[in-house]
Amino acid sequence: MKLLKNNNHKNKKILIIVLIFAFIAGSFYVIDRYIFHPKAVSGPIKTSDTNIKKNKSKTSDIQNTSEKSSSNNATSSSSELTKPYGTLVSNHKPGQNGSDLNMQSQCITTPGAKCYIKFTRADVEKTLPERTTDNNGSVFWQWKIKEAGLTTGNWQVTAVANNGNKTLSTTDQIELEIK
Asked: Whose CB has fewer CB within 10 Å in the chain, the N or C terminal residue?
């Protein structure tokens, strides 16, 4: 009878120890998941305007003299909208293997059309601000991964162009991988 009581007492001690360890492990999981890896929320991505102006001037320098002298009244609504393309992200695996965390994105479509780039993961959507394309149909963004609010995981990258009458989009075949 005494042996049975000892076994029962040992089982209670083991159960209490297991429960304590489970509580501690659960606490570490919650802290890691919700404090060190916060959930992403939808919204705009901050960009660097100084670098954008620099890139826009490079694009403008490519135009020949006859293009510069022609009227800039060509509006995108009078032109057929071109499906957007370009280097949607400069690096699909930023920060991996020592790669840069500074990103560059480009959208090329009909001159004068508006374009933005969106990043989607589950129910979260982050966007680079909508911008009007230049006379060559290009628009550039410079931005930083750490300031974008993109959480760990794979993000679908899509360029969206709009000319007021029509909207077209292109999804990058390679997802943006954040580690």
From this structure: N
